[in-house]
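Researcher: Can you fold this with NAP in place?
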Amino acid sequence: MPPDETPEILLIRQTRPDVAERLSGRFRLHRMEEAPDREAFLDAVGPRIRALAVGAMCPIGAALFDLLPRLEIVASFGVGYDTIDVGEARRRGIVVTHTPDVLSDEVADLAVGLLLATLRRIPQADRYLRAGRWREGSFPLTTSLRERRVGILGLGRIGRAIAQRLEGFGVAIAYHGRTPQADVAYAYHDSLLGLARAVDVLVVAAPGGPGTNGIVDAAVLAALGREGIVVNIARGSVIDEAALVAALTAGTIHGAGLDVFANEPHVPQDLIDLDQTVLLPHVGSGSHYTRAAMARVLGDNLLSWFDGKGPVTPVPETPWSGR
Ligand code: NAP
């Protein structure tokens, strides 16, 4: 390939050194965040950009695409892509890729940890000890996972990995999604409300976006009952956060373990003030091991694309059929 044909890639909120190191051997890289004047920067390099390498939860859509007329591919870091306008990408013939599978086990591990932490009040017990309160008396008894019925909203890659782990805990497992899955023995519910009525733990593992916005609402929370526990490792938008605060405050449900929030990194003070919540700063895939695996998949997609072999892991909305 002649030097002037080196593909140019724009990095947006993509700061991993391993990604940049791998891509710099093959592509000319530009970094959005390093440009003092982003408008002038995009005017200058935008017409040459053929690919984006973007961080998780990066808003990408028509306004940016308009400035990148040669854009062919958006490689996103993470499996969820609800902040990327994939319909608009598809209309423009732009492929979007993500990093599925390599993070499922890590996120499922965290989901189970968050469930146990919420039920057994592990962070609260840690704070109790550190505050010297053990000397005053034993930590109060907690709720339990014993004899629980767990419902999974979204039995996809991560939802299945959570269910597999929970099988080892001897709890009943049920799920809701838009379609029943033939190859699992878990009870299927064709409505989320029906699932919530049948269980007392709801683990949210469905994607964000318009199809799931606020579907865990006041009625679903009420259906879980007074012992109800909600765990969310998917997207904050799936839960009506105001309804969740109201349900926790009124004792309509018992507790919540949340890794994700509607307006990250801003977390409603009401959730922070509640004693029966366990709150994490969106760390589901956040281990060195798994983030490195995600970085490899992102790089694989771009290298494969510019080798003419198509994307490795395109999102279903922009499938690759070898154009
Ligand atoms: P996936 O394999 O696509 O699974 C998503 C599941 O959700 C599918 O089973 C799908 O089943 C169901 N679903 C989709 N739309 C639905 C709707 N409107 N109502 C009910 N169910 C619906 O995705 P995944 O790889 O498991 O990832 C799931 C999500 O986890 C990602 O989208 C991402 O937002 C989140 N995530 C969070 C972290 C973190 O750090 N906390 C890390 C990774 C991923 P049907 O098609 O049958 O409806």
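Model: Folded with NAP in place. The longest helix spans residues 288-306.
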